[in-house]
Amino acid sequence: MSDNQMPVEEQLKKAKILSEALPYMHQFSGQTFVIKYGGHAMGDKALAQDFARDIALLKQVGINPIIVHGGGPQIGQMLDRLKIQSSFVDGLRVTDKATVEIAEMVLSGSLNKNIVMDINEAGGLAVGLSGKDGNLIEVQKLTRTKRDPDSNIERILDLGFVGEPCRINPELLQSLEEIDVIPVIAPIGVGPNGQTFNINADTAAGHIAAAIGASKLIMMTDVEGVLDKEKKLINRLTPIEVEKLQNNGTIVGGMIPKLETCLFALENGVDAAHILDGRIPHVLLLETFTEHGIGTMIHQPEP
């Protein structure tokens, strides 16, 4: 056996993996996955290249991936570099005019194009968009309220140019699907008077998945998935089970809005939502093409 020849055991192991993947390739061929990409998976070069190869492979086997990416840390770094001070209200960044201009520059510029370049180098054909292109994501100003614990009076928190989707125009995405192009979308939307708004990437992905009737919404995060009170991974959840876990305090913090987005997608026709640990190499392939998957899947109850 030559030095570079793989042992038979390793070859058989790879063949078994490919054989296991085949029925899932048939099952999902022609379906659309909306994938929210962010966190550590986007900041680590090796993981970013793994992600790009996974996306190219999904497309190659007939799945239509649509990527919506975040970029909060990168926006923060650019604001620091330009010495633009950020203000916060209850831990939420206020996006003033200067900040939203930087957010658009970072999200729709170098960050978006680096993802596109990685996918193209991996053998896919990707194009970068923002929610402003073709009026893809029309938004209204996001409002949040806070109740004063002493007076019990609610006050409105003004977060500036932060929007929430009110209309998705999927025609552009449908046209790209017809010519086998992978859309990579920066979460920047257009307001009623043409203003630019920053959008939470999870929220943008959920609304796009609902609007186009995606088969799956996949949220890549920096956590293993949804954990129980003993910090063990919960593999599958129904909306009713999610509500119970919220009510008993098992689900807390940043996982709450992610699951709310998943439930919104399910309520609007998406078959399943997945919360995956983007720190795991090739996590998309493990979820899509293996029997037991990985992470947490949220789905409607079986009939």
Walkthrough of the structure:
The chain contains 10 helices and 14 strands. It is an alpha/beta fold and 303 residues long. An 8-stranded mixed sheet has the order 5-8-2-1-11-13-14-12, sandwiched between helices. A hairpin with a 5-residue loop joins β9 and β10.
Characterize the main sheet: 8 strands, mixed
Unreliable runs, pLDDT <50, ≥5 residues? Answer: none
Please give the alpha-carbon distance between the first and last residues.
Answer: 54 Å
Q: What would the average pLDDT be, to the nearest integer?
A: 89
Helix content: 40-55%
**What amount of the residues lies in strands?**
25-35%
Descriptive key words:
303 residues; alpha/beta; eight-stranded mixed beta sheet; four-stranded mixed beta sheet; 10 helices
Describe the secondary-structure layout.
Elements (H helix, E strand, L loop, with lengths): L7 H21 L3 E6 L2 H4 L1 H16 L3 E6 L2 H10 L6 E2 L2 E2 L3 H25 L4 E5 L6 E11 L6 E15 L2 H8 L3 E5 L1 E3 L5 E4 L1 H12 L3 E6 L14 E2 L1 H9 L7 H13 L4 E6 L5 H7 L6 E4 L4
Parallel strand pairs: 1-2, 1-11, 2-8, 5-8, 7-10, 11-13, 12-14
Antiparallel strand pairs: 3-4, 6-7, 9-10, 13-14
Helix pairs in contact: 3-5, 4-5, 7-9
Please provide a brief summary of the model:
The protein is an alpha/beta fold.
